[in-house]
Structure to design on (315 residues):
């Protein structure tokens, strides 16, 4: 047996062991794209269901807020098509994101991919009737009924909207209910709501290699209560890349199929067992491909996750 085949056998064994040990980390075969022709994308189950989502999704803040010009539309249409071809399914938007909901719905329709994504958006207003109007508008713009996931954006008027969301879920207008925020100061509120609102399906929260507060209590609480977790701000608005500019990856990164700083940051996030998916946003095709690479290959174990933190802090 050659050294190369030994390494390959070890990698396959480790990957299978991690998948079985994780319980909810399951492979999903992707075909038809040359970037990962012999690999499978990692997925995690939505707690309490048999539905699985790829661990890397895509946000739409700023990136899909474009006009009618064909140059912009053609470019983002290509981004969306490549995202799908690489195994991406989770798309997250909001009425707060300008034209993003409209554009996302239009481009998915152009590509004949309506109904093939896991679509998530948010309600971001005050008052019951205003919330109902906004959610109806969002579903129309995104051309998605039922909406896969409707979230209360930044906990604005959360009790009012949760009442509506429960009724809509019971009526089949939405499939899952969620809450979102993007700052550490909201983590305690999210934790309390997970404990008090027994029917939450998702939270969306900030968590990164540089901002790890969510791992202290919020992520374990979500896991204990069977709540799925989407992660926003995985790169902290780009500040993590500025922090490592000109720095080399550790030599052991390749042992975990980490080929870039972007994959280093994302694999740290999605290797946490409470995390269902991270949702980085981008307008650049090479960044998209790099992001999606974090959903393939080995995921770091606990010991390696600690090494990743230590290495970054020593730079």
């Amino acid at each position: 047996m050659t050294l190369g085949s030994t390494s390959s056998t070890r990698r396959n064994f480790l990957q299978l062991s991690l998948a079985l040990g994780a319980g909810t980390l399951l492979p999903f075969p992707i075909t038809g794209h040359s970037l990962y022709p012999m690999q499978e994308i990692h997925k995690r189950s939505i707690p309490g269901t048999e539905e699985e989502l790829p661990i890397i999704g895509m946000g739409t803040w700023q990136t899909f807020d474009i006009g009618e010009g064909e140059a912009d539309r053609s470019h983002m249409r290509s981004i969306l098509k490549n995202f799908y071809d690489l195994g991406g399914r989770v798309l997250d938007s909001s009425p707060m994101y300008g034209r993003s909901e409209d554009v996302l719905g239009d481009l998915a329709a152009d590509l004949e991919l309506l109904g093939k994504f896991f679509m998530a958006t948010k309600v971001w207003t005050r008052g019951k009737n205003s919330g109902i109007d906004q959610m109806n508008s969002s579903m129309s713009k995104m051309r998605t009924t039922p909406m896969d996931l409707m979230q209360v954006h930044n906990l604005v008027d959360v009790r009012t909207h949760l009442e509506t969301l429960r009724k809509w879920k019971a009526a089949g207008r939405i499939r899952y209910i969620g809450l979102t925020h993007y700052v550490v100061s909201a983590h305690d509120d999210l934790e309390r709501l997970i404990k008090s609102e027994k029917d939450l399906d998702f939270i969306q929260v900030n968590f990164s290699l540089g901002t790890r507060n969510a791992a202290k209590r919020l992520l374990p609480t979500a896991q204990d209560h069977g709540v799925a977790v989407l992660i926003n701000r995985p790169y902290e608005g780009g500040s993590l890349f500025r922090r490592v500019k000109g720095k080399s990856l550790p030599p052991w990164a390749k042992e975990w199929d980490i080929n870039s700083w972007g994959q280093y940051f994302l694999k740290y996030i999605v290797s946490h067992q409470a995390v269902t998916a991270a949702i980085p946003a981008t307008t650049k095709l090479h960044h998209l491909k790099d992001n999606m690479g974090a959903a393939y290959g080995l995921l770091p174990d606990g010991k390696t996750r600690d090494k990743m933190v230590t290495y970054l802090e020593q730079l």
